[in-house]
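Case study B.
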Amino acid sequence: MGVHEEVLRAAKDMLSRGLTAGTSGNVSGRLDNDQVVITPSSLSYEEMTLDDLVVLDLDGKVIDGHRSASSEKGVHLACYRKYDEIGSVIHSHPLYATMFACARLPIPAAVDEFAIYVGGEVPVCEYAMSGTDQLGDNAAAMLDDVGTALLASHGMVTIGPNPDRTLHQAGVVERAAQVVWGARALGGPVPLPEKVNRDFAGVYKLMFRGNSE
Ligand SMILES: [Zn+2]
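Model:
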């Protein structure tokens, strides 16, 4: 499957798994030539075909496509420019993670093995208006050690090696947000041993970011 097909499939799966609503959110993948293929703005995921995807260079110049690229392309491009090792970016609006984003609370690595897929606690980046380059810079700045960051009062951004793994990670984060929300109603999650999350973070770096530090 080529990158275009992977992006389209992840975009449709993002909607069907409830990780976004309506036409919100967007999915992209890096091509071999360091260009990026991204979903268009304001088109339903059910209707979307390969022909609707847009190819951009890393500065945002349109290389191919007849639609306008997602209005949140700045978040995607900032991540690709900062992290050479990543092959996909997904911006989503999952319900529970967005609750944390609105409360501006990080999602702790409270579920066993969470840190393997995400790297550790999901931070909240500083607020910037959607569609601005500043939002991209704020989000990319949080992703040195983890694969997902919350966009304050908005949603989340997830980076990974390919669209499939990146969407999987977004699902892990959303489920953890729901679990932590519920665990807090029961008195709060008991922290995992620090060493466990440290070791899992090492596995994350090795598996998904190409180094173990
Ligand atoms: Zn958004």
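The first strand starts at residue 26 and ends at 30. The remaining cases will be described in the next quarterly update.
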